[in-house]
Amino acid sequence: MASSTVGAQPSFSTLAISTNEPVVSVDWLHANIRDPDLKVLDASWYMPDEQRNPLQEYQVACIPGALFFDIDRITDRTTNMLQLAIRHAFEIDFITFYDRKALLIYQLPHMLPSKEAFAAAVSALGIENKDGVVVYDGKGIFSAARVWWMFRAFGHDKVWVLDGGLPRWCASGYDVESTAPSDAILKSSAATEAIEKVYQGQMVGPTTFQTKFLPHLVWTLDQVKRNIQDKAYQHIDARSKARFDGVAPEPRKGINSGHVPGSKCIPFPQMLDGSQTLLSREELEKKFGQEGISLDKPIVASCGTGVTACILVLGLHRLGKTDIPVYDGSWTEWATQPDTPLSTSVR
């Protein structure tokens, strides 16, 4: 579908949108897409076994004016578990140390980058602190929630997920660009280059986006370990029940399934309806209540690599729980440590 003029001049500023509401509708975006202080990001990402290329799909069909945010590249470049693997080589017998592809197993994907790296990448995309940001993905609500959380973790609360994502945008009859502008592709490449320069200690271009890291939104391995004993936080896991129970394999080779002791499973699709939009407040309250989660007590969320946990956080945000942390390393980190306990339902 070719691009056409979308919407009229915005009837109100993005600043008028409440940051207590984590999503905006496609109708709202269509009406406000020309606001110069609004940036739209395609943050599509898919599981490895889906064999889909989000950048290629973005280049074929994207919301007009959207930039591509690559969560595989705008990430920490230092978190690598190779040393751990070597140290425990006898315990991890599936690795081939001379096979470079096998070594990639040990890199923790999607870990939050440093505040300097995030600032550099977002600045390369042309985003400023004054901007409102709307994030969408190709599934409805999936990886976009991760980028929403990333912005919030770095102190930017003028960020929302597009409810229903690209599928709902298209189903509503709104046009897409059939060829992404070359400028947008260049900006995406520049964001990746900026991240790499920061981690290599090189100079980067002007920074238009300033970060303020909020550590209470990001949990570490040690915090999860302490919580097993303290039980101060209710730990909820967004993976499938079969993976949580240890009866289905993890999508990443060499990682056992199961769960953190004491955690509870709320698969992320339970936050969404059939059209992949976020459930109403009443329906969300019911879902959490059915799983024995008290909204009056602290909560921490995790998943496989820190992506779908953010969908649980999105739902909790709608319920007024705006300070829910994510265990960033999630199950990929937990299950590959030599001294972390794993629970399953298998007897």
From TrEMBL:
<dbReference type="GO" id="GO:0005739">
    <property type="term" value="C:mitochondrion"/>
</dbReference>
<keyword id="KW-0677">Repeat</keyword>
<dbReference type="GO" id="GO:0004792">
    <property type="term" value="F:thiosulfate-cyanide sulfurtransferase activity"/>
</dbReference>
<feature type="domain" description="Rhodanese">
    <location>
        <begin position="229"/>
        <end position="343"/>
    </location>
</feature>
<dbReference type="InterPro" id="IPR001763">
    <property type="entry name" value="Rhodanese-like_dom"/>
</dbReference>
<keyword id="KW-0808">Transferase</keyword>
<dbReference type="InterPro" id="IPR036873">
    <property type="entry name" value="Rhodanese-like_dom_sf"/>
</dbReference>
<feature type="domain" description="Rhodanese">
    <location>
        <begin position="34"/>
        <end position="178"/>
    </location>
</feature>
<protein>
    <recommendedName>
        <fullName>Rhodanese domain-containing protein</fullName>
    </recommendedName>
</protein>
<dbReference type="Pfam" id="PF00581">
    <property type="entry name" value="Rhodanese"/>
</dbReference>
<dbReference type="InterPro" id="IPR045078">
    <property type="entry name" value="TST/MPST-like"/>
</dbReference>
